[in-house]
């Protein structure tokens, strides 16, 4: 956790790979992560927690069983705990995620796209 001022745009400029969350800071037991998204992720859920998406730039579609939620820059959406979802970005999206420390990006699905949260330099 950092106690210094962090700039979201500088943090997002520090890496290029999609689907690799980076911890910007922490608040109590929650991580505030920056991430770049491109293409389609995996269908998964987080049985124990909600997941907040805040789009910084681009357009993100969060596919839910039965409907799609489209987020544009500055939009926020919370995927409720246990709800299966699959984020999709036709072009690069920059986003902030807020979720409890230790939450895996692939939730209950696991697999090769599971990524440890990386610390920003």
Automatic annotation (TrEMBL):
PANTHER family the UniProt entry points to: 16.7 KDA PROTEIN IN WHIE LOCUS (PTHR36114)
Gene3D superfamilies named in the record: Jelly Rolls
InterPro entries attached to this UniProt entry: Cupin_2, PKS_Associated_Protein, RmlC-like_jellyroll, RmlC_Cupin_sf
Protein name: Cupin domain-containing protein
Domain of life of the native organism: Bacteria
Domain Cupin type-2 positions: 40-98
């Amino acid at each position: 956790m950092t106690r210094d001022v962090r700039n979201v745009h500088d943090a997002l400029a520090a890496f290029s790979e999609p689907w690799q969350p980076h911890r910007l800071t922490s608040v109590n037991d929650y991580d505030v992560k920056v991430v770049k998204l491109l293409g389609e992720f995996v269908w998964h859920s987080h049985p124990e927690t909600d997941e907040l998406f805040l789009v910084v730039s681009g357009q993100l579609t969060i596919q839910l069983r039965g409907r799609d939620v489209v987020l544009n820059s500055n939009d926020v959406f919370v995927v409720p705990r246990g709800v299966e979802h699959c984020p999709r970005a036709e072009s690069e999206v920059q986003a902030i995620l807020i979720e409890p420390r230790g939450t895996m990006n692939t939730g209950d699905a696991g697999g090769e796209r599971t990524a440890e949260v990386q610390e920003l330099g």
